[in-house]
Amino acid sequence: MVAWLIAGAVSAATPVEKDLSTGWQFRLMTERGADSVRDPAAQASPATRCRESCKRFADWQPATVPGAVQTDLLALGRIGDPFWRDNEADLQWIGLSDWDYRLDFDVDAAMLKRGHVELVFDGLDTFADVEINGRMLLSADNMFRRWRVPVRDALHKGTNTLVVHFHSPIARLLPWLMRQPYSLPGEFDSSFGDEPKGKQTSNYVRKANYQYGWDWGPRYVTLGIWQPVRLESWDATRLADFHVAQKHVDADSAQLDAQFDLRADRSGPVILKVDWTAPDGTRGHEERSVVLSRGENHVSLPVSIAHPQRWWPVGYGEPNLYRFHAEVAADGDTIASADRDTGLRTVELRRDKDTWGRGFAFVVNGVPIFAKGANLIPFDSFPSRVTTARMEAILRSAKDANMNMLRMWGGGTYQDDAFYAAADRMGLMIWQDFMFGGAITPYDDAFRENVRIEATEQVTRLRDHPSIVLWSGNNEVQTGWDDWPDRQDFRKFVNADEVRRIDDGMRELFGTTLRKVVQDLSPQVPYWASSPSTDYDGPANVENDGDFHYWKVWSGSEPIAHYLDVTPRFQSEYGLQSFPVMATIKAFASPEDMQPESKVMRAHQKFANGDGNQRLLLYIRQEYGEPKDFPSFVYLSQVMQAEGIELAAEHLRSARPRNMGTLYWQLNDVWPGASWASVDYFNRWKALQFRAKRFYAPVDVVPLRRDGKTEVFAVSDRTTDFAATLRTRVYDMGGKLLRETSQPVHAAALASTKAVTLEDAALLKGADPRRTVAAFDLIEGGKPVAHHLLYFGAARTLVLPQPGMSTSLRKDGGAVVLTVKAKRLARAVWIDTGDLDVRLADNAFDLLPGESRDIRIDGVADVDALRRVLKVRSLVDALKETAP
User: Is the dihedral of CA 573, 579, 583, 589 positive or negative?
Assistant: First the structure.
């Protein structure tokens, strides 16, 4: 966002902002006053209707902006916690109702004398009619657009009244949709009867798809002023945008173009100025005079920087950022200014043809980067609740787990500037989808034009963030259209000409319209039409070209070992579910709910309408056995998820350069419940996140066992080769070291090096595979830089001993150190700190016989309190004993 210069000595020509975020009120919209409450859910099921009790919401009440109706009602105590137990069902009436928001604000004579006064909404959710002093000014219909409207003629000195009428998107669209000859295939049908099966209104409105319900989150159709609102006043000239275009960047020089987007009421000369500051404090200055024409002006100022300090992804260098300060001056006065922090770098999506097909690799500053990370979904069901600190904490969790890329999935929202600024500072690459979550899109010109404006605004807003390394048109629209059974049935139902129009419309939107927006506004960042796809150069979701989503494991119920059967060029989605820790479960459930098939647990399990807990049990039983109780079920779900994703991710890393990226589904949660996340709603790390910290480490040793044979790889993201030793130890699980061998390994830079291939017979040498474990260590300079254990079968087939674990706590400065030691093998050790808000440096690990591990625990205020709640368990503690 352009930062206006309004502090210090401000000239009369300087634009001025008036914040309009405080003092709002809201109420349930009425047709003829409070005595006649409109019920837009009249056609919905009785459970979701706005009943007579809704009349009590028809009086004006305090509101928070930015916000949503649901969060305002919650703040007033008018509704219960939307995430508690099964409250979701009883709160659906809110998104089916229409609501008014009102603000009285003062305007002085000085503002009215300005040449322009504009009302600016950074985001309205979603169908909204805006009026000032009874004059209708705007009808909004896109959650993702900024709405700017001139209002000087509608204002008067003194108190003015701004009213925004919000209309339920379901109530507005459903009557229209029911009259249509067909409904476009969407994503998830409502579980609450407010839309008939197969009649999804979300396809037809530019609103966050996930708010209609997903297989990891609840259905809360929000309404409200979800982004800041303000008045902007200015006279002859307004700086609409300032952009630092990177025409050429390499190690020797950066050739930049400082671009000013100016709106002028009259022609005349101005001076453009740019000051830049490098990360090391070096400064530079450029300026030039230009003559503006009346209307829109796109003018630029060349900037050259020698030996630029380039921005690098985490693990490859520093995420260096330059500060650019721009000013526009006329008649000796600064009339507008803006600041930009950006990193100088090049990004390429390398698509070379090779023996495996056609590649898909991100190259930053000429260095091929193996992408390690996860998919990111919105941070909350109610976006306005997400603070900058909360976003940054999730991003730090990603960075701390050695991730270098996050995919901002297309069914949510474009994030605030603060999100991308944090990613810039941390060196995290962002794959940015446009906001399409998988539903088939309308093909009419009006819809496409609405999206074009949305994309233009969002790319313009975000294009200076070096963290954004890809713009992708959508999530799963093409592969869904081509392959999903409901889409295939739809094709048979609709006539061939209409099918062709729908197909052509999607290709036009994702293949042409959005591509042109990116190429015109941010040409240094690649565009990709859909995920997964081949960028409309052939079928979507194929292993030998483009990116790939793999869901036969989990959605297809195939065994976890089948992860080894696919080696795509880039795996941008795959995943396994788990429950969050018990402390998080207690935040939404009562003691009587603590069963996998309880009503509340099913309500917080969105996969297959609650049947996902049976899928969890399927995989737990396949790999481990029968949980002894509910906490054990929760623990085993996390062990299964962590070990399964580890197998997939390390297989993909070992296949470099055939594969150049692994983004598992998913990093985070929108609410507390069962999901594919590795970090739960409260940013508590699941076992998978701790495992990811190890399997995404810059150097990894990867033993992959198939058909009685183990291949061991040294995987390195380092940019230089290094010499190491591969140490192999074989243990009896009860404690005896059976043998130890070592051999040299030359670990190639940016590569996976096969170190050795070992038959089971060579490793075991007659030992019982059920009671034996192999340990592989990559040693550099006498110290292990990577460690991995290998088992000879699924855990349920092993004879795991009681590990005989012991623990001790000691203070270490401002932290506490926990030491865990095992006499015998301890598989899947989990340290539980109860409800204490602490962060463990390590967890979810295995201990060899006689091994101990020190774990730093930060945030401990009371060691005695920690000692009282601390529990340490391993796999054998969670399983029911089976008869011999």
Answer: positive
What are φ and ψ of residue 120, in 5° steps? -125, 120
Dist. CA 151–CA 162, nearest whole Å:
11
Residue 17: closest CA among 118, 157, 148, 153? 118
Q: What residue ranges of the chain have pLDDT lower than 50? A: 1-12, 32-48, 883-884
- CB neighbour list of residue 255: distance below 8 Å, 6 or more residues apart: 246, 247, 248, 249, 302, 304
Within 10 Å of residue 810's Cβ, how many Cβ atoms?
A: 11
What's the Cα-to-Cα distance from 768 to each of 130, 299, 731, 846, 875, rounded to whole Å? 75, 76, 11, 20, 20
Q: What is the pLDDT of residues 174-223, one digit of tens each?
A: 999 999 999 999 999 999 999 999 999 999 999 999 999 999 999 999 99
The pLDDT score that the predictor gives to residue 54 is: 67
670 CB contacts (<8 Å, ≥6 apart)?
210, 216, 217, 218, 377, 378, 379, 380, 381, 681
For residue 126, is the peptide bond before it cis, meaning its omega torsion is within 30 degrees of 0?
yes
Question: What confidence score (pLDDT) does residue 78 get?
Answer: 95
Residue whose tokens read 């699941």: 686
R_g (Cα) of the chain, nearest Å: 29
Nearest to 124 by CA among 39, 218, 18, 208: 208
CA 544 – CA 522 distance, rounded (Å): 28
Token pair for 566? 């696919």
Of 407, 402, 343, 422, give the one whose Cα is nearest residue 375: 407
Helix, strand, coil abundance in the chain, percent, nearest 5: 25, 35, 40
pLDDT of residue 31: 60
The CA distances from residue 378 to 68, 127, 208, 408, 413, in Å, are 15, 21, 10, 8, 7
Query: Looking at residue 4, what is its pLDDT?
Result: 37
Residue with tokens 């919905």: 44
**Angstrom distances, CA of residue 172 to CA of 95, 167, 689, 722:** 11, 7, 42, 63
Cα–Cα distance, 170 to 212 (Å, whole number) = 10
* DSSP secondary structure letter of residue 449: H
